Amino acid sequence: MLINNANMDAMFRGFNTKYRDSYDKTPSHWDKLAMKMPSSGRDETYGFLGLFPSLREWVGPRVVKRLSASSFTILNRKFESTVEVSRDAIADDRFAVFGPSSRKWGWRAKRTPTN
Q1: Under the phi-then-psi rule, with left for phi > 0, alpha for psi from -120 to 50, and beta for the rest, what region is 60?
Q2: Which of 6-40 are b and which e, b meaning 16 or more Cβ less than 10 Å from the residue's Cβ?
Q3: Would you say residue 51 has pLDDT above 80?
Q4: Contacts of 36 (CB under 8 A, 6+ apart)
Q5: For range 40-61, the mean pLDDT
């Protein structure tokens, strides 16, 4: 394969198409266990109230109970995975072997939600 901008662009589009197709078709279950929260900083602190006291029959004066407040902080982390395709593999038109890998990368990215 001639190594030029058009061929490199076509190759990367092919990798991206296989990756995206696999990503879109891979089932994910994290959203059944967790809630997605937007974040724009290096960390996020979430506050919450403790358990709400149980109800009781109202007989006599009110009994005031205090709610406890707590918080936790989640540090945001960055993830990436960079791969290299050798010039020889491209020149020898051998880059088709990376197609299945592109699908696996899409599957792996979907199964490890990070965004």
Answers
A1: left
A2: eeeeebeeebeebbeebbeeeeeeeeeeeeeeeee
A3: yes
A4: none
A5: 91
